[in-house]
Amino acid sequence: MTAPPLAAATPGPASARAARFLREPYLLSLCLFVAFCGINLALQRDFFTPPILIANLTTFLPLIIIAVGQTYVVLGGSIDLSLGSIVSLVNVVVVVLIEKLGGGTDAIFAGIAVGLLVGGACGAVNGAVIGLFRLPPIIATFASSIVIGGLALIVLPQAGGSLPEAYYTVYGDAVLGVPTPLLVLIAVILVAAAVGRTRFRVHLAAVGGNLQGAYQTGLSVTRIRIASHALGGLAASAAALCILGVAGAGDPLMGQAFTLGSVSAVVLGGTALAGGWGGIVGSMLGGAILGLINNIIFFADIAYVYQSIVQGVIILLALAAGVFVARRTQ
Q1: Distance between CA atoms of residues 84 and 253, nearest Å
Q2: What is the pairing mode between strands 178-179 and 174-175?
Q3: Per the domain annotation, does 143 fall within a domain?
Q4: How many Å apart are CA 259 and CA 146, to the nearest integer?
Q5: In this structure, is the dihedral angle defined by the CA atoms of residues 162, 164, 165 and 169, taken in order, positive or negative?
Q6: What Å distances lie between residue 90 and 21, 78, 95, 128, 188, CA to CA?
Q7: DSSP secondary-structure letter at 246?
Q8: 3-state class of 329 per DSSP?
């Protein structure tokens, strides 16, 4: 029998790099993150000083958290277009509830707990509707986003209300010398790492990768869908709580921009919208990349009328780079 050629038996450096990109979908987003950090440094010389880094983290954190939640949804072969509306609903519910309870420490903790419960419940309902009635996720969650947005307007028809000073003071301060936004980010990473070690993560990827096969193997697809969407809703709630730590007031329209932003961050992070492939690290980097792009537009002093166009072009080029690399590595 003729031995195969050495080149066929031993992959070259290019093939090894391609395999690496396939195994680690976040590598491209990491490269983009480094590149955009370099551009920011060129435009803002004090970019890497601690105050600026913390300020940027505080700004980027809500989108990063929502992107993490959207990743669980997308990994399961679904999508949630209501996460932005959930942010708005939790935002106003927390503000109104804390005010009604008197604004003390107990009221703050009660507001946070109820806010997380509301977001998780909204996500779970989305998952149940999609799983039980087999509705297309994009249609079901688009409809639910309208309903949830309407509920936010009922709770607080217009921007207003205020949180106790203790709420946003603690969020803007530090705990044991560590800035609170950094502690929140660490908590999100730890939770994501814990979820990643469970069978749920494996089952979620199985459902997203082959829905019919998941049904045939006996996986409870509906429960997995409910759990993944509930995680998305909880992430949206956590993001809303972070936003309140900066804004200090309620706004029923606060979350509108976060839905598509979370989807963009997930795609930039290398997660396949078809489901079954991707990871949390890439999505977090994707959220940070979108924040860095906004910084570039601001510090480059681009005229307001062109800002949306420039932002869209940069995001499109970044996404196109991801598609190009994916095709070259297949």
Answers
A1: 9
A2: antiparallel
A3: yes
A4: 12
A5: negative
A6: 38, 22, 9, 20, 18
A7: H
A8: coil
